[in-house]
Amino acid sequence: MNLHLHLGVQALRSARRGSPLDDAPADAGVSGRYAYLRGLVTNLANPKSVTFVVALLPQFVDRSIGHVPAQFTVLGVIFIAFELLVDGGVALAAGRIGAWLSRRRRARQALDAGSGTVMIALAGRLAFER
């Protein structure tokens, strides 16, 4: 509870102060290759991702058709294509929203105020549930 309250108060303080507009994002020095490799390693090391794929794909393989490895390959390629579309779309949207927010002080203040209010409300709820 204390952490939620602290984070909420810090966000409200940040909204009240307002922060200067950034000329460049904080991680402007990160190359696309490094970001891709970092995301790839993170995803491959995530046991939930591996478990999901291992549990999902075999349900759609029909042994009576034959060529089981080929079926797994096709399903894997389809799965990866959908992941690229969805995750790529989310990444592009997040990048554009982040760039937009970095240029608009009032939008960042509103976001800080809203998230601070939510965190304080969560801290209050936790306090009353205990």
Protein architecture, described:
The protein is mainly alpha-helical. Helix content is 78%, strand content 0%. The protein contains 5 helices and no strands. The chain has helices spanning 2-17, 32-45, 47-56, 68-103, 105-129. Helix 1 (2-17) runs antiparallel to helix 5 (105-129). The longest helix has 36 residues, at 68-103. The radius of gyration is 22 Å and the shape is elongated. 5% of the residues are buried. The mean pLDDT is 83.
Describe what is shown at a glance:
The chain has 130 residues and is an all-alpha fold.
Please state the average pLDDT score.
83
Beta strand count: 0
Q: Taking Cα atoms only, what radius of gyration do you get, to the nearest Å?
A: 22 Å
- Kindly report how far apart the N and C termini lie: 10 Å
Give me the number of helical elements. Answer: 5
| DSSP helix fraction | over 70%
DSSP strand (E) fraction?
Answer: under 5%
Please state the structural category.
mainly alpha
Q: What is the makeup of the main sheet?
A: none
